[in-house]
Amino acid sequence: MARDDRESVSPREGAVLDRVERRLTNAEIAGELYISVRTVESHIAALRRKLGADTRSELIAAARGRRRRAVPVPQNSFVGRAASVTLLRSLVASRRLVTIVGAGGCGKSRLALEVAAIDERMPVVADLERSTDPLVTIADVLDLVVETPSDAFATVAVALDAEPTLLVLDNADPVAAALSALVDRLLASCPALVVLVTSRTALGGSDEVLLELDPLDTVSLDSSPDAASRLFRDRAAAAAPARPLTPADAPVISAIVQRLDGLPLVIELAAARLRHLTLLDLAARLEEGFGWLDRAGSASRHRTLEAAFEWTWDQLDARERDALSRLSSLPGPFGLDLARSITDIDAVLQLADRSLVMRERDGDRHRLLGTLRVCVLGRTGPRVMQEVRLAHAEWVLGVLEPLAARARLDDAPASTFAADRLYADAGAAIDFALSSEHAPLALRLARSVAVLLEQYGLRTEGRDAVARAACSQSVRDAATTEDLFLLGQALCHGDLSLVDELAGIALARGEGDLAARHLAGTVDAYLDRRERALDHLARAEQLAVSVGDAWALGSIRQHRGITLRRAMTHGPPPDLVAALAAFESAMSSYALAGDAMHVNNTRYMMASTAAELGLVDRAIQWADQCADYARHTGNEHELAHAVLARLTASGGTGEQLDDIVREFRAVGDLRCLTRSYFLAANRAGYERTALEQALEIARRAGDTASQARALERVIQSYQSPTRHAALAFGALTVVLGEDAAAARLPNLSWEGLELAVLEGRAAETARSRSVAAHEGVERGNAPT
Question: What is the pTM of this model?
Answer without folding.
Answer: 0.76
